[in-house]
Amino acid sequence: xxxxxxxxxxxxxxxxxxxxxxxxxxxxxxxxxxxxxxxxxxxxxxxxxxxxxxxxxxxxxxxxxxxxxxxxxxxxxxxxxxxxxxxxxxxxxxxxxxxxxxxxxxxxxxxxxxxxxxxxxxxxxxxxxxxxxxxxxxxxxxxxxxxxxxxxxxxxxxxxxxxxxxxxxxxxxxxxxxxxxxxxxxxxxxxxxxxxxxxxxxxxxxxxxxxxxxxxxxxxxxxxxxxxxxxxxxxxxxxxxxxxxxxxxxxxxxxxxxxxxxxxxxxxxxxxxxxxxxxxxxxxxxxxxxxxxxxxxxxxxxxxxxxxxxxxxxxxxxxxxxxxxxxxxxxxxxxxxxxxxxxxxxxxxxxxxxxxxxxxxxxxxxxxxxxxxxxxxxxxxxxx
Length: 384
Prior knowledge:
The protein contains 15 helices and eight strands. It is α/β, with parallel strands linked by helices. The chain folds into two domains: about 10-175, Rossmann fold (3-Layer(aba) Sandwich); about 185-380, Dehydroquinate synthase-like - alpha domain (Dehydroquinate synthase-like, alpha domain), CATH 1.20.1090. It has a six-stranded parallel β-sheet, sandwiched between helices. Strands 6-7 form a two-stranded antiparallel sheet. The two termini are about 40 Å apart. The mean pLDDT is about 95.
């Protein structure tokens, strides 16, 4: 097992009614910019609860952050924050809103072109502090320091990581996810599942604790995901899914073990080019990636087959294929299609994705840096 530095300063306020804790979590006297998405928080009561908790603070609002937040929209939030001299941000929504808040937090004090944070990996020397109120469990952005932003004008989807954009706190009230549409519930479960897989299905390094953590999270999603669709009002189911999604990408299960992320990088290009939901791209790309890279991942795929899907009979290749097929079936059961054709895309889309990967220098992906554009093509062709 490799050496690691596990660092995470985010305070989690978990449970029903925790939005009220904002009154003490947000610094007294702060000028707060509340960031949110399309307005669902006004319909489900979250907006009113947040504003009541912030009644003792000066509050400025910015709505309209898209799924897959765009640089163009976020720069309007940056300008508002500068004009209003805000000194604290509060992201209220899902991973896209939280990712957007991270970029805004870094961009407000940034000297130079803020796109350089994403496009040129420019160092972030300071950032506005911020907290989150999570309404859509999926990305884990509420407890990590990563963000993904799309530049609409150039169809580029870029990410950045910096410890200065860890949320100071995150409010996780599972009850606030009960009114989510089935599509968002399914997407969230698939998103969290693939986050775990990208850190788990690599190669053995003796990280038994991390493996068991990952397997426990995967099993919980397999058990609870379908329940969330069948019994949408069940609080305990929502609580377990929300906590799984947070733990899937807060750094814990990836500490000291290799990670992959090739599926994510290819998926980002599908989103940027064709507007697919992030989880939809992961469901399309992952099965093919596992099949094409079966030999490199053989040991962990066999472990995955046995421990997660309880497959022990037959030869090794049969068990591996069965585990991948079970994964596809699980995604489909969550309402997330696993074929490009399910989203109206054909072989022509693959050429455009490959061209984008080359343009963005995503030509050595994966835990061994051996996922070439040709391997990405093979994976996508299996998803037609």
